[in-house]
Design brief:
Elements: H1 18-21, H2 23-29, H3 47-51, H4 65-68, H5 96-177
Length: 189
């Protein structure tokens, strides 16, 4: 068995102020508060309550719905004398003059919008057309440049062929002028 040492109990240290013990020092440090005194937690009865005569507390007045002018919340229940109309409700039109004036204003605004849209569309179409023409002109220039390069290359090849043919003809002429050598022939019998 292993024996453990017992730990010594910790000594509590208390910090006691000297003011609590010394009344003269505590009186010198005391500050009188100018604030209103705090109300106590407990409800103290008034002296009249202690004597048996309690003060009467007035209850606030309760107003009825009619006095306040509040409409009834439950409108599904109607008195027998009042009958609401049932079925479709008809449309209520404004005065014809006012309606026509409003319609004219709205149509004018829409027409202005459409007209400006048409003008913008025409301007955009003109821009697109000019771009298309530019692109076509550039493509035409490229084609012409390509065709000219092709024709130059063909002409060079054609010139080279002519020169080589002339050179071949000249060599053949030189050979024909000289004595013709007989070729050896081999016969199999």
């Amino acid at each position: 068995m292993v024996l453990h040492k017992k730990k010594a109990p910790t000594v509590r240290r208390e910090n006691v102020s000297e003011l609590s013990g010394n009344k003269q020092a505590s009186n010198q440090l005391a500050v009188k508060s100018t604030a209103t005194p705090k109300q106590s937690k407990y409800n103290h009865r008034s002296r009249s309550g202690i004597n048996g005569v309690a003060k009467k507390v007035k209850k606030p007045r309760v107003y009825t719905e009619k006095e306040l002018g509040i409409p009834k919340l439950n409108k599904s229940i109607d008195p027998e004398g009042i009958k609401r109309p049932k079925g479709k409700k008809g449309k209520v039109f404004a005065d014809e003059d006012a309606m026509t004036r409003i319609l004219l204003q709205v149509n004018e605004a829409v027409d202005n919008r459409n007209a400006s849209k048409l003008e913008r569309a025409r301007a955009l179409e003109a821009i697109r057309e000019s771009k298309r023409k530019e692109i076509e002109a550039k493509e035409e220039e490229k084609k012409q440049a390509l065709d000219s390069m092709k024709s130059e290359i063909k002409n060079k090849k054609h010139k080279l062929r002519k020169e080589t043919k002339k050179a071949d003809v000249a060599t053949i002429d030189k050979k024909s002028e000289g004595p013709a050598k007989k070729r050896k022939s081999v016969s199999f019998k």
